[in-house]
Here is the input.
Amino acid sequence: MITATSHYSVLVVEDNQDLVIGLQDLLHHDGYAVTVAGTVAGAIELVRAHRFNAILLDLGLPDGDGLEVLKETHRLDPSLPVVIVTAHISRDRTVGSLTEGAYAYLTKPYDREELRHTLRRAIGVKELAVKVERTEHLLSQSEERLQLVILGSNDGFWDGRVLPDEPWSSPRTPVWWSPRVKTMLGYTDEEFPDVLESWASRLHPEDADRVFAALTAHIERRNPYDVEYRLLTKAGEYGWFRARGQAIWDETGRMTRMAGSLQCVTDRKRAEDALRRSQQLLRDVADNTTAVIYVKDADGRFLFTNRRFEQLFHLTTEQIVGHTNHEIFPREIADAFRANDLQVLERNSTVEYEEQAPHKDGLHTYLSIKFPLCDHTGTPYATCGISTDITERKRAEQEIRRRNRELMVLNSIGQTLS
Here is the structure.
């Protein structure tokens, strides 16, 4: 039941002033805002200029038939309820007004309570009509947005419904495939009909069991469905795709529908594969050299070391990566390493150092070439070092210097004796 408040506005079309006063008293008492018109022309002008929640309409007006007001009202707003309140009670007039779109027909003298209830029901119908119209408008907008999203997206979309008395995995399960799905795969509508088999038959044999297991886990245990797999394209090649979806279950827990998206990730997969090959190439080169290679971030934590580093210092990758020099080497040695690393970062240039590192047989000398690794702005975020053990060379140089000194002494003695 509608409770009348001041935001409900009623147009009273009546030329009898005594009846107008009575209606105004009744309607004001119930909280309605009341506007009065005494002629057909005046009523039509008001209907065109203002918005009302309902109209109480007399048919016998000084300048014409009240049905003209009804017709114009229905033309402008078919959902606006018009309640006929008139002394004309002929069957033709009653049926005629209802045929023209009147909500109800009351005869004078009217019953106040009947009029009240009729008016409240009329306004309730109007509000319901407005809500339905608004809902339909919002639904139409939503559908339009969805269509624009589907048309403007690089992703494909799908929507499947389970057939009665058949498993969801039935080849005949109806699945709507958006045009983008078929375009990505290169098939026409005839070549890729809207059934599950169109997709299932083109899954890579190595991926099929894994993908159906993921679907089953989602449908039976409601695990998230987000999986990547290969599909056969019309060109005869397999492309990589990422599928995501969400099922809908009925009150018994049975899946009735599932919809989702399909995204082509072939380029990303190729890039990842190229990156893996590049990383493996780097690893192979780094692990098959006698030099020690390492990368440390700006805080001095190791990001990468090669096999030679691990072999020389008898450490595993887990014991090195994520740790600092001070967690691996004696303090004085670590201080020297850190000072050189910081200098490389500050200079943002390549620097060559002689550094010492502890081995089982004592300190070894390394020739270290260190250079900064920079981000896209040119800001260094890490240092890379390539260190070569020159201990034997240093010892040979020292031996040569010692022998040269001895020769110089012997030459000096010989000259003195002569």
Q: What stands out?
A: Residues 1-6 have pLDDT under 50 and may be disordered. The two ends are 138 Å apart (CA to CA). Residues 112-152 form the longest helix (41 residues). The chain has 13 helices and 17 strands.
